[in-house]
Amino acid sequence: MERPLTDYQTNTLQSETATGERISTLERVQKISPNLWKATLAVVRKDLTAELRSRELLSAMLVFALLVVLIFNFALDLQPRLRVTVTPGVLWVTFIFAGTLGLNRSMAMEKDRGCLDGLLLAPVDRSAIFFGKAIGNLIFMLLIEVIVLPVYSVLYNINLFNPGLLLVILLGSLGYVAVGTLLSTMAVQTRTRDMLLPILLFPLTIPVVIAAVKATTGFLEGWTFPEIQVWLNLLVVYDVIFISVAFMFFDAIVEE
Amino acid sequence: MKQAKPIALTVLDLVTLALMIAATAMVFLYAPLEAVMGQVQRVFYFHVSAAWVGMLGFGAAAVAGIAYLRTGNMQWDVRGMAAVEISLVFFFIAIVSGSIWARPAWNTWWTWDPRLTTAVIVELIYAAYLMLRQGIEEPERRARFGAVYTLLGFISVPVTFISIRLLDTIHPVVIGGSGGEGGFAMTPRMLQTMFFSLFTFSVLFVDLYWHRVRLGTLARQVEQLRLKLAQ
């Protein structure tokens, strides 16, 4: 769909107002919403294209995730009897560690090659950059999870193909990636950036870990739905709160 | 440039010292001996007070964070930092004193109860906050990131508390509730001692906070003078 020139001009004017005078976030969203969506998709597409060509992020995350599963096998001596109780914990630790690796790398690439400055100079709202990066990170994390699940099922002879489990993984990853994208943007701008992200991120994502592990256990052990629903609700609440909070704070993090 | 220590601060120091002595005396001499737990229950008064100061600092840090992001005034950064540091120390005191009490009362030093775990997570968030600040040299960016991170912590900690609470709890709810292992009914003298301790620790918080903000302000002035010299 071709956009007329005037639209582009208004867009430029609007982002000038966004930096020049303080207008509320809501007003900004209302003003730029059609372009916001388009710009977000552009950022996502950029991340996916770059990844398709280099494949460095996904391969590193995948190998790392498989290594974590392997190490758990020896560290916990996963016997058949123990497996059902331990599996949710092992899975989520794997996802979260691999996720941190991806979040760190995805932002470090932007920073190293000066792409972040380029993105910030683009005449689009900053939230498009946040949502674009977050959706990109979410896609990478979900891809890893989709690969790790069947591998884990085969290795430990557990049936993990459960639609409920997929819902838990989606909700858990969503909240994790929202906070993670914000904090990785923060972490890459510091001196100790590679070390810092997990230290900043883990204490804030404890509710995700608790709820996701509990809900996963529920689905694997066949709890009744009301028992699981408590944890699903918690995940939804966390996601809603932290997506909006991260969106609100992103401007303060990239402002120069 | 204000450099001399304000007289009001000196007065407050002395008042705090007197209150601390009085509170200690009350805990050991005035409050009656608890029937079941004995002497170890006396740690309760300062334990609750220290946790209260930790919470005060936690709230103050969040207020300073919001104020900094709204105004961009560096003085709010100094205030936020001061609140975080004091909160960090007092939560640590609360955790250690609670542990001393828990050993005879619960027969364990530690349990993964919501309050205990949440206190530790607050400590970890603050540790991360300090590391974040150490990694940034530019003062304005350091203040901005610090403010955002304290607010993220402030929002996530209640959610964490609720999610751990959904798991299970054995921590006694002494005030306004029953249940939990090691809960007890308080006599009037115990209540008086507790409220006096709470008051004393609040004054102590104000005193320490004042000192810390003053130190931060002076440090900022030194930094500015050094920059001026370098130019």
Structure description:
The complex is a heterodimer of chains A (256) and B (231). Chain A is mostly helical. Chain A has one domain (35-254). Chain A has helices at residues 5-20, 25-54, 56-76, 80-112, 115-121, 126-156, 163-187, 193-204, 206-221, 225-254. The longest helix of chain A is centred in the middle third of the chain and has 33 residues, at 80-112. In chain A, 43% of the residues are buried. Chain B is mainly alpha-helical. Chain B has one domain. Chain B is 77% helix and 0% strand. Chain B is globular. The chains are: A mainly alpha (256), B mainly alpha (231). The A-B interface holds A 179, 182-183, 186, 189-193, 196, 199-200, 202-204, 206-207, 210-211, 214, 230-231, 234, 237-238, 241-242, 245, 249, 252-253, 255 and B 69, 121, 124-125, 127-128, 131-132, 134-137, 141, 144-145, 147-149, 151-153, 155-156, 159-160, 162-164, 166-167.
Keywords:
heterodimer, A: 256 residues, mainly alpha, 10 helices, 0% strand, globular, disordered N terminus, B: 231 residues, 6 helices
Number of strands of chain A: 0
Number of helices of chain B: 6
Largest sheet of chain B: none
Specify the oligomeric state: heterodimer
Biggest sheet character of chain A:
none
Beginning-to-end CA distance, first to last residue of chain A: 33 Å
- The helix content of chain A, as a percent range, equals over 70%
- Total domains of chain B, how many? 1
Short description:
Chain A is built from ten helices and no strands.
Question: What is the topological layout?
Answer:
The complex is a heterodimer of chains A (256) and B (231).
Chain A: H1 5-20, H2 25-54, H3 56-76, H4 80-112, H5 115-121, H6 126-156, H7 163-187, H8 193-204, H9 206-221, H10 225-254
Helix pairs in contact in A: 2-6, 3-4, 3-6, 4-6, 4-7, 4-9, 6-7, 6-10, 7-8, 7-9, 7-10, 9-10
Chain B: H1 7-30, H2 43-71, H3 74-106, H4 114-134, H5 139-167, H6 188-230
Helix pairs in contact in B: 1-6, 2-3, 2-5, 2-6, 3-4, 3-5, 3-6, 4-5
